[in-house]
């Protein structure tokens, strides 16, 4: 669908793609769908926005276990996970770059946080929404709630 190679879909590319795949939708409805998928309202749909809207909704069981993991990380209880929250929870000593002396403990923590941080707002702070969004992507590839919960419990020692 990305005809111009911009790694984003314009409204025109989105509309043309829908038509190419045999979906005949009124122009106003296409605009409405486009606006819904264009989370940041930039006028273009990037790959992350596209994937996010294709994911199936998570069950309340999955959301609850994700929330438990987040609360374990958020030691200050302020709703944001920062480098300070990770001290004493995440062991940086075994990270290869720390072992080689290439990174400090703080750099290891920031790298860890970056994996959960919003791609459009890399600020070294992770909110519950960002954490949920990350695990929503993981959840999409796990069929069973029981397996997902077990995976989260084992990963986060819940």
From TrEMBL:
Record-linked InterPro entries: Ca-bind, EF-hand-dom_pair, EF_Hand_1_Ca_BS, EF_hand_dom
Lineage top rank: taxon: Eukaryota
Keyword Repressor: no
Presence of keyword Metal-binding: yes
Pfam families: EF-hand_7
Domain EF-hand residues, every copy: 1-24, 25-60, 61-96
Entry keyword set: Calcium, Metal-binding, Repeat
Molecular function (Gene Ontology), one example: calcium ion binding
SMART domains from the UniProt entry: EFh (SM00054)
Protein name as annotated: Calcyphosin-like protein
Protein species of origin: Bagarius yarrelli (Goonch)
């Amino acid at each position: 669908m990305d005809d111009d190679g911009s790694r984003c879909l314009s409204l025109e590319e989105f509309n043309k793609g829908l038509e190419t795949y045999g979906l005949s939708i009124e122009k106003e409805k296409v605009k409405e769908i486009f606006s819904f998928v264009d989370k940041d309202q930039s006028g273009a749909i990037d790959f992350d926005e596209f994937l996010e809207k294709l994911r199936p909704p998570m069950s309340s069981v999955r959301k609850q276990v994700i929330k438990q993991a987040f609360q374990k990380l958020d030691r200050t209880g302020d709703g944001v996970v920062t480098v300070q929250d990770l001290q004493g929870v995440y062991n940086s000593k075994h990270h290869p770059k720390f072992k080689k002396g290439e990174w400090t403990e703080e750099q290891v923590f920031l790298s860890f946080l970056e994996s959960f941080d919003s791609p459009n707002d890399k600020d070294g702070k992770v909110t519950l929404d960002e954490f949920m969004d990350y695990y929503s992507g993981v959840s999409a590839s796990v069929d069973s709630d029981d397996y997902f919960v077990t995976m989260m419990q084992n990963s986060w020692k819940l």
